[in-house]
Batch of 2 targets.
Target 1
Amino acid sequence: DADVTQTPRNRITKTGKRIMLECSQTKGHDRMYWYRQDPGLGLRLIYYSFDVKDINKGEISDGYSVSRQAQAKFSLSLESAIPNQTALYFCATSDPRGGVTDTQYFGPGTRLTVL
Amino acid sequence: AQSVAQPEDQVNVAEGNPLTVKCTYSVSGNPYLFWYVQYPNRGLQFLLKYITGDNLVKGSYGFEAEFNKSQTSFHLKKPSALVSDSALYFCAVRERNSGNTPLVFGKGTRLSVIA
């Protein structure tokens, strides 16, 4: 969905480096999410934010941090990257006006490789 | 706790034949259920969701899903498969009275439609 963009799309880095993945959206949604996708493990939630002042840990937050700079921007950081953080990372948004049935809209993903 | 299971990692079907991708869920109360599709090198796209009412839900691209409370299932179906339906399919669940907890995704099922 072009309304949710992620940068970079691909990144190769080395163990111990600090990495930031960025997500921007033009949908005007308050809710934003970061997931990682690994083969055979599906989609796992890292962090989520329901508004600019709200940050929540997901299922696998260890080794990650996030920053919600504005309604439209939600970045994910790996303070010291390690090889098992090699994965495909997705940002998603949703509209709270949809209530608990809100549909999530996903970005195109960032493929991160940690050597 | 909420959970969802997709018992098949891979489903193969011939073009023109009906397809079924299975999903079972576990929640304490009543569920909201979703199906998403991921095409190669793309983010997830929303297909359909069950909120309440009619157990048969129709979605995008000719897909439908049937909610079966007694079997705690929400299988995705299509009467006639197309090669272009080949993709990774994810089922997701949220319990109806769980407040703002995020969706829980299954591990995904890869559908391969053979010409």
Target 2
Amino acid sequence: AQSVSQHNHHVILSEAASLELGCNYSYGGTVNLFWYVQYPGQHLQLLLKYFSGDPLVKGIKGFEAEFIKSKFSFNLRKPSVQWSDTAEYFCAVNGPSSGSARQLTFGSGTQLTVLP
Amino acid sequence: DTEVTQTPKHLVMGMTNKKSLKCEQHMGHRAMYWYKQKAKKPPELMFVYSYEKLSINESVPSRFSPECPNSSLLNLHLHALQPEDSALYLCASSQDRFNEQFFGPGTRLTVL
């Protein structure tokens, strides 16, 4: 079964600081990659996705992520965070699980706190 | 309409009760999912329906029983739950098993 690792459990930044959240996955075959965000009291929302093509993908609210196949990584970045970016961020990988069925596997999440 | 709706928003039930959670989408998606999410944890997959057929059951106890009456609706029937089943239950849908999933707001379930 595939696994997804998010190395930072809690990140605290001041406004205007740059952000990079790490994500690594275990499966070496074809996968689709996602970052989801969960703002306090709100539902999971898609930030960005990677299926194929340009490994640098841009998402909503100024976020971007880079897919590095050789490192099995899909790190999330934002040049300048805002207080409103305070939320839980989940990396997720869609790939084969047991057998051939594809499913979405989430990382453990990173809580981002942005101080005003 | 790009929403997944879930009812009820909150549910409190005793261990002997029977209740149902409902999920609806009108995006023409053919895959629908139930997840369980505990506080500060990622969603855990419970069930996957693809073209209205159950395709994944992640070893979920039989006290949870999913149902997909049609391509827009997904139910989760609950019976004889345990207090440790208290969690946020999320429904999601996607165009197919490969594409991004759209999540509903969830049902906050408390089992007394």
